[in-house]
Amino acid sequence: MRHIVYISGTRADFGLMATTLAQIDADPMLRVSVIVTGMHLDPTYGETWREIEASGLTILGKVSVPMSPATGATMARAIGTMTHAFTDLLEQTTPDCVLLLGDRGEMLAGATAATHLNIPVAHVHGGERSGTIDESIRHAITKLSHLHFAATNEAANRIIALGEQPENVMVTGAPGLDGLTDVPQPDRAALLNAVGLSAANPTALMLFHPVLQEASDAGGQIDAVLTGLIQARWQGIVLTPNADAGSDAIRARIDALKTDQIRSFVHLPRAVFIAHMAGMDAMLGNSSAGIIEAASFGTPVVNIGSRQNMRERNANVRDVGVDADAIAAALDKIAIAGRFPATNVYGDGNAGERITKILRAHPLDSPLLNKVLTF
């Protein structure tokens, strides 16, 4: 039986992978355990590690790291702390493979620890472009990984262009789409009534994260986003951001806002978040959920700023700068145009099945670990 260790640092990455992890763990030839770190363990962010525990998956270990002040230096130091702790956990348990998602520091720390212990690394969502520090971290993880589960053909081709062996690059689709449309959907009015907002008014699900290179302007940026929302006379269901550099300023602006148009939350459970994504009139901000998942519901998206630069778009995404007037104008257009057909370039909702089959059968021996560039 192969032992797969997944590393999770945020509510977002676990939500995206939960269905896939359950499928892997249900396979008689595989078992899963999870190393929990980062925002999951901080009460400020809802202690979301409890959702992992409630899923029935085995928690291999918990690695706490400082989350404040929310600066680039804190993020860099956390990578060092996690690399040390992950090395100890992986050395003790010697799993057959470490599974990672995306582009965060937790995943870079996991890839660094695993490769130095001769443990194969499988990486989900490599090969995508977005600009900012996220892209650099994502490609660094790709070069430390041995199996690549790409979400799209374009991403797979880019991984191969980075010098990875084509036979180790598989297009699986995005795991976050698995089971997405199977979640029971309360009607829009019920969702809005539950948070004290009017069903008569257009409403956006809003999630705006800081960009490391623009952290000093994060407060001004969220002011523009909130002003645009209010200016357009839309209501907002607002989630507070990840604990990255600049997040303190964003959180402070959201907490200080005094308006009946907006309700803010630290965390929404995955099923509730999906219900709002499907039920609201638009998504607003710079979350990858707007780029990848919202299209499966045809939900219009106003994507703001540089955080998702150059990522593959579905037809439902409208890009604007961090400008209140432009944001308000985009919301005005959505109010007229309405929803989009539910088609999605990021997959068909069967990524977990494909990933499970590969992890069960793909060779994980020394030739896989002896990586060389293909050019």
**What oligomeric arrangement do these chains adopt?**
single chain
The succession of helices and strands, N to C, reads EHEHEHEHEHEHEHEHEHEHEHEEHHH
In what range is the share of β-strand residues? 15-25%
Largest sheet descriptor: 7 strands, parallel
- Taking pLDDT < 50 over at least 5 consecutive residues as the criterion, the unreliable ranges are none
Total number of strands: 13
Question: Can you give the mean pLDDT?
Answer: 95
Report the span from N to C terminus: 35 Å
Which sequence of strands runs across the widest sheet? 3-2-1-4-5-6-7
Radius of gyration: 20 Å
Q: How much helical structure, as a percent, in the residues?
A: 40-55%
Structural class given helices, strands, pairing?
alpha/beta
The tally of helices reads 14
The 3D shape can be described as globular
Which helices and strands appear, and what pairs or packs with what?
Blueprint: E1 2-8, H1 11-26, E2 30-37, H2 49-54, E3 58-63, H3 72-93, E4 97-101, H4 105-116, E5 121-124, H5 132-144, E6 147-150, H6 153-161, E7 169-171, H7 188-194, E8 203-207, H8 218-231, E9 235-239, H9 247-256, E10 262-265, H10 270-279, E11 282-285, H11 288-292, E12 301-304, E13 317-320, H12 324-337, H13 351-361, H14 366-369
Parallel strand pairs: 1-2, 1-4, 2-3, 4-5, 5-6, 6-7, 8-9, 8-11, 9-10, 11-12, 12-13
